[in-house]
Specification:
It is a single-pass type I membrane protein. This is TIMD4 protein. Pfam families: V-set (PF07686). InterPro entries: Ig-like_dom, Ig-like_dom_sf, Ig-like_fold, Ig_sub, Ig_V-set. It contains 2 helices and 9 strands; from the N terminus they run αβββββββββα. By secondary structure, the protein is of the alpha+beta class. It has a domain of 110 residues: Immunoglobulins (Immunoglobulin-like), CATH 2.60.40. 27% of the residues lie in helices and 20% in strands.
């Protein structure tokens, strides 16, 4: 009966193994992520070896080991991105993942090898690495006024202001109050203004000639009437 109970206890321990705890650690891409793991050290004799693996803790050792330590120094290292930056002599065997990547997400096993059968300290960590958050705040925008129409070349706008001589409403030239839309339009307006300014003196000279002719005719008529009276 006693041998039967002992056999059942051995089988139970072999198949169930030691108790394993599990924690979740989150981090962002590009940052250093620390996966915690500690064990109690009372004196120098309590320092022991341990390993980190990329999978759940098996019955012995570490699956896919990435770093080992004998408790005093790192004895095996899969990559320089996996480091033990804690005080090993005090039982701080936390794993630091330098410059974390999304591919680093997964299950990590911290196995501290303690003396005795099935006494190892096992901790499974679920590491989740996400992309860095993007700020949703709208950036500051600066607007500037555009004087030319979109798609057109940058050309200055001209506004022509001219003082006209006193003429009748029918003879007054028609002027456009809107500014020029381009260099060619401004040139045309300037040419028209010059032609108009040249034609105005000629019109005034013609009017003076007309008045002089009428005066001459009136004088001749008056002389003719006086000659008839005299005769």
């Amino acid at each position: 009966m006693l041998s039967y109970l002992c056999l059942n206890w051995v089988l139970l321990v072999l198949f169930t193994g030691p108790t394993v705890s599990e924690l979740v650690v989150t981090g962002e891409v590009g940052q250093d992520v620390t996966v915690p793991c500690h064990y109690s050290v009372r004196d120098g004799n309590g320092i022991t070896s341990m390993c980190w693996g990329r999978d759940r803790c098996p019955n012995s050792k570490c699956s896919r080991p990435i770093i080992w330590t004998d408790g005093w120094r790192v004895t095996e290292q899969h990559s320089s991105r996996y480091q033990l930056k804690g005080d090993l002599h005090r039982g701080d065997v936390s794993l630091t993942i330098v410059d974390a990547r999304e591919a680093d997400s997964g299950i990590y096993c911290c196995r501290v090898e303690l003396p005795g059968w099935f006494n190892d300290q096992l901790i499974n960590h679920k590491v989740v690495i996400t992309k860095a958050r993007i700020s949703t705040a709208s950036p500051h925008t600066y607007t500037s006024e555009q004087t030319s129409a979109p798609g057109s070349t940058s050309e200055p706008s001209f506004t022509v202001t001219r003082t006209w001589p006193s003429v009748s409403a029918s003879e007054a030239p028609q002027t456009a109050s809107a500014p020029c839309s381009g260099t060619s339009d401004c040139l045309d307006v300037t040419a028209n203004l010059q032609n108009t300014s040249v034609s105005l003196p000629s019109q005034q000279q013609a009017e003076h000639g007309l008045y002089a002719g009428i005066g001459s005719c009136a004088a001749l008529l008056l002389i003719l009437i006086l000659a008839l009276f005299l005769t």
